[in-house]
Amino acid sequence: MKHLVRMALAVWSACCLLTAPLLAQQRPRVITNRVFTNEDLRQAPAARGDARSAVSGPAAPAEEAPLSLTLPEIVTARLLSYSRSVQPHGIYFEALDGSPVLNLNESAMYNPASVTKVMTSMAALEALGVNYRYPTRISYTGAMDWTTGTLMGDLVISGESDPSFATESLFLIGEKLREIGVRNIQGNLRIGPGVLLNMRSQPVIVGQEMLNTLDRSRWTSRTEAVWNAVRGVKTFSQIPVYQGVAISPGNVIADDHATPRYPLMEYRSSPLLKILKVINAYSNNEMTHVVGARVGGAPGVRQYLVDKVGIPPQEVYLQTTSGLGQNAVTPRATVKLLRYTVNWLEKRKISLGELLPIGGIDNGTLQRRFTSPDLLGAVIGKTGTLSSTSALAGVLYTQKRGLLFFAILERGAPHSLRPLQEEIISIVAADSGGAIPLALGSEMSPSLCEDAMVSESAAARTAKRGE
Known about the structure:
It is a single chain. The chain has two domains: about 70-130 and about 275-430, DD-peptidase/beta-lactamase superfamily (Beta-lactamase, 3-Layer(aba) Sandwich), CATH 3.40.710; about 135-270 and about 450-455, CATH 3.50.80.20. About 35% of the residues lie in helices and about 20% in strands. The protein has 14 helices and 15 strands. A hairpin with a 2-residue loop joins strand 12 and strand 13 (about 390-400). The longest helix has 22 residues, at about 1-25. The protein starts with a helix and ends in an 11-residue tail after the last strand.
């Protein structure tokens, strides 16, 4: 009975102490080691210089030492003060040696929202490879007169659904065409299969924007703005002035796959790892769907989790590869995935910060979170947000416990759950001797095309010459 009374008092006391900041909708309070251990409160009145201890007369009643709360007790009290129930909160922290640090509803199913993107990312990395590059092929019909740089035929563009193919990709292609000697195209633009441009796939829309970019005389104000925006990126700073190629009459037509064509050049995207870092940092759903389609969609990703990662089938359900819709996973299974991810990347000498955003440092969903000096650069992870779901999963490095894997999957209003998640991270960090920065600088590329490659086909000048 005494233990139950003590527990009740502890929970009530913690609720009173921890409720105010969240209810006031303030920024999450960073719990430092000093606040967590409450050293000042543990000192005797005389040690604090309390004037009452020097007053003569009958001895005052001895102050009862404050209750020493465990980490689970403090977090439970914090959750109860937030929602009066712990059921909407699934929390699991695990040390590198596999020992649980904090667990609450870790075997219950919650919607991970965009944390699902980590699952899709790993399935794609293992299936395609870290350095996989999406190819986009440029060929031509008709005849090429290399002496004048004139193509008397159509330019044909086909690809393999590169989610990162964008307007700036066309700047590199246009300049490469000019570099190898193509100046004028007396024909049209044929759009083949698998071509995406700025995540659009409609041939007419895609083709028109390609014309407006490859041909400098067709530039719109938007094209000019994109060009000016990427001028600071190393790849584009090496192009002093964009010249491109002239295309006339320049109609956009769908490739009939029947007209003979001849290889000209190939554009290859930045490595898959760099594309995934941007996808995860900005939590782009459409790009994730494209990546996921290469590995069998939601069923393929789930099968990967069961077969490769070793997640029990009953602990994961996927409807989409991006996190939209009705997906479900346990916090325990999420941590298992994170552990697998870190180990897989380490074997290839890759840090988790090259795949997932760094809190307070990288642009995107974690840019304005964990910005306090105590936590800046100490959290690497993935956010997840739906109308009634908020999730956060990743790693935290601490003084006493070393690397901690964590998953916080919750049901409720995201705008109020995010500060709560940061507070929980802060509490765990303080209980673990404080956080240590995992990374102090961003590993994101300034442009998805920064490391793209464009190369002339070996058969370009011999496939078919002009008469």
